[in-house]
Each structure stands twice: as structure tokens, then as C-alpha cells.
Specification:
The protein is of the alpha+beta class. It contains nine helices and 22 strands. The strands form five sheets. A seven-stranded mixed β-sheet has the order 4-7-2-1-11-14-13, with no helix packed on it. The longest helix has 23 residues, at 365-387. The chain binds zinc ion. Zinc ion (ZN) is lined by residues 1-2, 321, 325, 344, 347.
């Protein structure tokens, strides 16, 4: 996500890091076959999700799926939107949605989890390691009126996290249940393959993570491989412009933007830069979507939501930041719940690299680093005054952030400072070589912090102490 808010808010708790299993090659990936219909009048998505689940973990008698749509219901323990963003998000006042499971084929089921956020399916027989099974989940997703990942916005319909998402599994074999923390991106999922058949009202256009493989009347079918999520944004106001970048179709979907060509240029140019710098983009298309979103933007594989209320400069910056997430989140995953700095710091620093090498934007390395240092020092001073001792650790659970303000300064600003200091210390050549290593070694996986540091170590430098000093909060900035 790209944050734009710098306010101060309420209190939080703590937890510990979880190691992950790696994700799979083509024959081992889970497959989702989703058929869904959006009804404009009721604001609902009627859907059936057939999942061919590939068990790459230990033998199990159950499957678990995250029901992110339930976080929008009335009475949810974890509200999806932070207090700071609440009024901007709920543009028509309070509004609620839910993800109601209506039937499951393939096993007995129940809704559980800390916040009714998990669908548990009890399998009729144990699923061995390497085996697969089929379950089919019918559900109704009711959408709140909200400028957020899943909701009806003023100009669009955001369908992020619109289907039951199989829980990733830790190295201990346990399914990792994600509750909807409002600070950060509370999502963890392994790469999978998707076929999505969508029926929409007449006159609507859909931006999706995938590429269209068939269409008939108001129904379109999309496919996407090796992706950890699938997202759709609908609107009856969308205009589109496209360009081909290498073999990737880059499209900008917008409803009101005088600078549409500049956005498309930034999306395409940054995609080329990141491909040349880190490694190839693996999806057939990339869509940037102007939409209702209370923060700056939100990344999904093959698609980025950008807040339509941003001014031109912030919109371009957010577009480049979210495009960088195609590398650091979509293709190379990481633990966004315990190590948010890993993808947010890298997305920020990758945007810096793009702007540094694209002087026509007038954004310099020095300018971005100085801005991050100033913001971080201001945070440190304020939090020292409020709490007596500002927490400067970087590796911490999303629950552990006191506010959006703290989250932004630790994950984004201190993350950017970390990578700039590393680059200055080891030199440009090793720095870029380390990121190329990270991309090629961790493509399609959920990479740990050690995976990242190991890719820099492989360039012939000892940087373990360096990372510890930042991550444990010892270094003075
Ligand atoms: Zn981000």
C-alpha cells in the first residue's frame, strides 16, 4: 500500500515472526476457478469458487480460507479502516458489508477464527503432503459503500480480496489466519493459478489482474498464473488508454484525469526500468486503475489501485511505488504482517531508483532521502515525547504499530533510509546485484528477512550486523 496520511492515533499490542514454507512450481500450485456476477442494485457479488488445493505442507485434515470480506461487517472486532482514514473512506457515513458462505462441497464447514474471518473445511479424509483435493465454495459478497480495498466507491467498485483466499502455512504446518489490521497490508498467500468468469451489468468495464481469454455478452473470462491474489475493479465510467511494453499490455483505467497520458507513461516507463534493473515482469498485463481509495494506493498482482483524489504529482509517485510492488510483493512475496518494511521499504527505494534515473520528473535521490530522514526524525522526537521511549524496531507485527503515522515512518521512511545506507556502504554494483539475486532466488515465494539479507551477502559482503542494527532499532538516524 502507499500511505499518504501523517496523523497520530491510538494504542497497539505485539506478536512474533512466523517462518514460511516456500511456494510452488506450476504443477504444485493451487487453482481457483471463480464464477461471479455483480449486481448493481443490491451491491452484491454472487459467486462460486472451485478450488483445486495443492497441499505443499504437512498432511492435514482441514483446509482454511481467509474471508477478508467479513471485516467490513457490523460489529467486526478488527475494522478494515484506521481511525485516521475513517471519514475519508466511508464517504456516505457508516456502511457495512460481509462475505456470507452459503454452501461448501468437499467437506463439512464452519466459520471460525478470531473475528469470523476464517472458513474451515473438514476434509472427508486426510490430505497427504503433495496431494490435492477439490472444494467448491458458494458465497455472497455484500459490499459496503467505502473507498477501500473491497467496496463500492463513488465512481467504481473495488473487488480486492473478493474470494475465499487459502491461508498460507507456516513451517510448523499451521494455517496462518489473517485478521484485518487497519495499519498495513494484512495479507499472506501463496502463488496460485486463476480462471475468473465475471458477469457485470451492461455498460460496465472491468480492470482485472488477469488477461481476458473469452467474452460473451456481459460475461468475460480472465486467467492469471503464478499470482498470490486476483483483483477486479469495475466501473461504468472507465475510459482506457494502453501501451505495449516489451510483451506486456499496460493499461490505465480512469474516470476523470486530464493527465492520463502522463500516468500511462510513468506506469510503462517504471515497468521497463524495474525489468531492466531487477528482472522480468511475468504477468501478461499490467493495469493502473484510478479508483476510490482512502490511502494512496494498493497493490495486487497485475493491477494497482490509485486514489483518484490525489494531485498529479502524488498520483504519479503512487503509481511508481505500486508498480515497484509488482516486484516486491507480487512476484517476490514477503511477510507483510511481521516484516512490513521488507516490501514497503523496497517499493519506496525502487521508486527512488526510478526517479533518480528519470531526471525529467525532477525528483532526486537526495531530495527523497532528506525527506525520509526529516520525517523519521520528527516521528522519533514526537514519540519520545509522548511515550518516553520511541520504539525504533522495524521487524514487528502489524498489531504492534501504535498508529498509521508510526507504521509509515518505520516501514516506509526508515525502510528507505536502510536501503540507501546499505547502497552507500556496499556500492551501487553490489546493491543492484543483491536485488537481482533476491528477485531470481525468491520469485514466486514468500521470502524471509534472511532470504533478503542472504542475497546481499552473496555479493561478497558481510551485512548481517548492518541489518540487525536497523531492524533491532540500535542505529541512530
Ligand atoms: Zn506500498
Amino acid at each position: 500500500m502507499k500511505k499518504i496520511v501523517t496523523l497520530i492515533a491510538a494504542a497497539g499490542l505485539c506478536a512474533a515472526a512466523i517462518p514460511f514454507s516456500a511456494c510452488a512450481n506450476e504443477n504444485e500450485r493451487t487453482e481457483y476457478n471463480i464464477t461471479c456476477r455483480y449486481d448493481e442494485e443490491s451491491g452484491t457479488l454472487q459467486a462460486e469458487c472451485a478450488v483445486n488445493y495443492k497441499n505443499d505442507g504437512a498432511a492435514t485434515d482441514v483446509l482454511k480460507f481467509n474471508l477478508y470480506g467479513n471485516a467490513y461487517r457490523e460489529g467486526a472486532l478488527y475494522r478494515p479502516v484506521s481511525d485516521e482514514l475513517n471519514s475519508r473512506a466511508y464517504y456516505n457515513g457508516e456502511s457495512y458489508g460481509q462475505m456470507e458462505i452459503t454452501s461448501v462441497e468437499g467437506g463439512q464447514w464452519n466459520i471460525c477464527g478470531e473475528d469470523e474471518n476464517i472458513l474451515e473445511i473438514l476434509l472427508p479424509q486426510t490430505l497427504g503432503e503433495g496431494d490435492s483435493c477439490e472444494v467448491t465454495i458458494a458465497y455472497t459478497l455484500t459490499l459496503a459503500e467505502v473507498n477501500h480495498r473491497t467496496g463500492i466507491t463513488e465512481h467504481t467498485v473495488n473487488l480486492g480480496n473478493f474470494y475465499p483466499v487459502a491461508c498460507a502455512r507456516g513451517n510448523d504446518g499451521e494455517f496462518i489466519e489473517c485478521v484485518y489490521y487497519s495499519d498495513g497490508d494484512p495479507f499472506l498467500s501463496d502463488c496460485a493459478d486463476y480462471t475468473v468468469e465475471l458477469t457485470m451489468p451492461a455498460g460496465y468495464t472491468a480492470a482485472t489482474s488477469g488477461s481476458m481469454t473469452a467474452s460473451s455478452g456481459n460475461s468475460c473470462t480472465y486467467s492469471l498464473e503464478n499470482a498470490r491474489d486476483f483483483c477486479i475493479v469495475l466501473s461504468d465510467e472507465f475510459k482506457t488508454i494502453s501501451r505495449e511494453v516489451d510483451s506486456t499490455q499496460v493499461t490505465y483505467y480512469y474516470y476523470d484525469d486530464e493527465n492520463a497520458q502522463s500516468v500511462l507513461a510513468a506506469a510503462g516507463d517504471s515497468l521497463i526500468y524495474f525489468e531492466n534493473t531487477f528482472g522480468g515482469y511475468i504477468y501478461p498485463s499490467y493495469s493502473v486503475v484510478q479508483t476510490g481509495f482512502a490511502a494512496g494506493g494498493m497493490e495486487y498482482p497485475g493491477l494497482s489501485m490509485i486514489n483518484g483524489g490525489l494531485d498529479e504529482d502524488d498520483f504519479i509517485y503512487a503509481t511508481v511505488h505500486e508498480t515497484a510492488h509488482q516486484w516486491w510483493y507480487a512476484m517476490v512475496g514477503s511477510d507483510q504482517i511481521n516484516c512490513a518494511w521488507q516490501d514497503e521499504g523496497l517499493a519506496e527505494y525502487s521508486a527512488l531508483l526510478f526517479f533518480e534515473n528519470s531526471p525529467e520528473y525532477g525528483i532526486t535521490r537526495t531530495g527523497l532521502v532528506n525527506a525520509a530522514v526529516s520525517a523519521y526524525r520528527a516521528y522519533f522526537t514526537v514519540y519520545n515525547q509522548i511515550f518516553g521511549d520511541a520504539d525504533t524496531t522495524m521487524t514487528r507485527h502489524l498489531e504492534d504499530f501504535v498508529s498509521d503515522y508510526e507504521y509509515v515512518n518505520i516501514a516506509y521512511n526508515k525502510g528507505l533510509i536502510l536501503f540507501d545506507t546499505l547502497r552507500t556502504s556496499i556500492g551501487d554494483e553490489r546493491f543492484i546485484a543483491g536485488l537481482k539475486n533476491y528477485y531470481s532466488a525468491c520469485l514466486g515465494k514468500i521470502a524471509s528477512e534472511q532470504d533478503l539479507t542472504g542475497c546481499f551477502t552473496a555479493t561478497g559482503v558481510d551485512i548481517q550486523g548492518f541489518f540487525e542494527s536497523f531492524l533491532e532499532g540500535k542505529i541512530i538516524i
